[in-house]
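haha ok so turns out i had the wrong file open the whole time. this is the CORRECT one, sorry everyone. sequence first:
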Amino acid sequence: MGNGKEILIGNKGDSFTADISGFLSLRINDADAALGNNDGAITVNLRGPAVKPTATNVNNGSNPVALNVPAAGSGGFNYTQGSYLEGFEFTAKSAISITHLGAYDSNYSQLTNGAENFSPVQVALYNLTTHTQLGLVTVKASDPLTGVFRYASLVTPIALNIKDNYAVVWVSGTNHYIASPTLTLADVNSAITYVGTVGYGPGGLTQTSKMVEPDFFFTEQSHGISALNYDIGPNFMFKVN
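then structure:
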């Protein structure tokens, strides 16, 4: 922001213009020997349009989403320690078509350590029954935001059947994901059945920069709700056929 990492406002206040978007941290400094060191109050007035994420809702009208991950209240923390294949397995309860694939953007979460430079990230849809990649997009920082996810549209919606198992996955790259969230099955859209977390390699811990079909499966049937609260990175939008 401004002309550098620190902007000294002075003891009576001042104004500045941000050069880029991001988070603003405020601090009061006084003498180390002062009573109530760094204590006080700051009043901030913002001018100009504010960009706010739209509400995430599992029953979002024309563009319902698979997972409801609120900006506040999702639990867990923003984290990255390398590039991983992450996502979740699901089945469709009725005939639906996936219209958009999404990627988590931690800049719009209220979890700590959210500020990041969102990098383009690949998100794919796989049919795990036929071992087929059905769709692939690259989600960019310029793609529209819904909740805490950016979504890229598929050229053609992908119709799902109610027999096969599917997975939506991303390759995280340098982007943050939510580690150890505290979602419930009520956060899963009623149009799908959440099967479990998927990944790549033993324990899903093999790093990769390439999109591959997942081969690690941590299912809700075997592990309960912890299968929903492993890591969260990709998501999708769909329509009912």
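Residues 1-6, 48-60 have pLDDT under 50 and may be disordered.
again sry for the mixup
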